[in-house]
Specification:
conserved putative lor/sdh protein from methanococcus maripaludis s2 fold; Elongation Factor Tu (Ef-tu), domain 3; 4 domains; 6 helices; 19 strands
Amino acid sequence: MKLTKKKLSFLVLLLILCGVIAFLVAKGNGKGAEYKTAPVTKGDIKASVSASGTVNPVTTVLVGTQVSGTIKRIYVDFNSPVKKGQAIADIDPAAFQAQLDQARANVLAARANVAKAQATLSDSKRTLERNRQLFERDLIARGDLDTAETTFNSNEAALQASKAQVAQQEAAMRLAETNLRYTHIVSPVDGIVVSRAVDVGQTVAASFQTPTLFTIAEDLTKMQINTSVDEADIGKIRPNQAVDFMVDAYPEAMFKGRVDQVRIAPITVQNVVTYDVIIKVDNTDLRLKPGMTANVSIVTTERDGVLRVPNGALRFRPAGSEGSFQRSPQTDGRRTGQPASGVWTQDGKRLKRIGIVPGISDGVFTEVVSGELREGQIIVVESNLKNNSRPMGTGSPQGMPRFMR
């Protein structure tokens, strides 16, 4: 039977399509054995915990005022070095000087009242003694003697009250002197003025809380970093652990520090629990400034000169091998006798698995605690074909959506 022209064209197209499919399959099979490899090396590994924090002075003093008034003079500015006891500002003392003068006058009046009470007491004492002598001679009545005694006792009490008034007025005078002294604001420590919050002529009110006028950092050569570490990592942090950190101001520089304190007070923000870790830093060159953001790496464990493999080698799985090797440590040890972790090497065109016991990891390399690996041995890191590392026959590829029927 003769083929029509239309059927002949269809057969030709079908043969071409089959040839293209066969070519692609052959090409894919040719690349199936191509893998990226890397050697097993020896080197140093540091397991670390990453966090971020703020650089702060170890001691920061907020200098305020206990009295209200108008700023009359300012003797320092930003970045000014100061010594303990050095004057840094004055509040207008006129009102406080007047209060002190009034308190001194009250003290003088109270002392004059004491002298007056003493004179009255002396007079009543003489009267009492004279009445006693007259009573003994039966020249006056008993009531006159009792009146003299009562007057003496009253005057004696009045003298004590006058002395108490003197003590009260003297205390008020000392308070006025203290308030006057508070108008002269001095630095409580040696340090550097980090910030100034007032200007000359500004009125400050200390009625309910002490206003902050200056912030003084005691010693900028010694700084600390206040970091927040997640609760999942806080168990690895210990005092005196080494710390590496960087700041945005010096992107090429790596700074060193030490963990000084792990605070046990939890901080919960949106159900995320963190803990403060204080890191002490030497800042002799004064490059670090208060308030800088530090990206911190706390070294929890360190190994020197150990056998190590790239982390990609531990993640690599040949196509169709997941069901055989991706088990828990308990399952592998009980059923197969092989370690749960392993790497793959090329044995000709085939892949061979070598079980290892991994140690610490720095995110790039993982320590090999035990296993049959040796330094310089070539291991597979990944496949050049992306679908070669997926399990076969497990449904749709990873990352592809499943459609409802």
